[in-house]
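= Protein in question =
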Amino acid sequence: MKKIVNGALVSMMLAGAPLAAHAEKLAVVDMGTVFQQIPQREQITDALKKEFGDRMAAVQKMQDDLKGMMEKQQRDAAIMTEAQKTDLVRKMDQIKADLQLKGKALDEDLRSRQGEEQNKLLVKVQKAINDIAKKEQYDMVLQRGAVIYVKPEADISGKVVEELSKGQ
């Protein structure tokens, strides 16, 4: 009986040896942290502000004008003639329509450009992750959200940020 048990134990150890020999070196990256900390994010934000700043200012001015007209309507309603009230309402309706049209166009254009810039940045982040994985011989790099627990030393997010900071 002892021989059978010992034989079974040796067999299990031998069967498990190849599995242990193939242990993989894993790392994780917190993409949210990486995108928040890389300096290119601020550069993109500044570039988009420059590109869309005039349009944003125009939309803001329209909002301010509309607010001023609404305040005037409430404040001066008692002393305004019907013609003045009608004229003010028409102006407000026109500004509302323009504001809605320009605001929607601005929002769509801004969202589209942000997507383009984020895709360019994602390519750079992916390249940095690949370079680190090759250099440090990781077999697999997972996103932080895909794992429940990871040792802090297996998180390479800081290394990715550092790599991207070098290559601004």
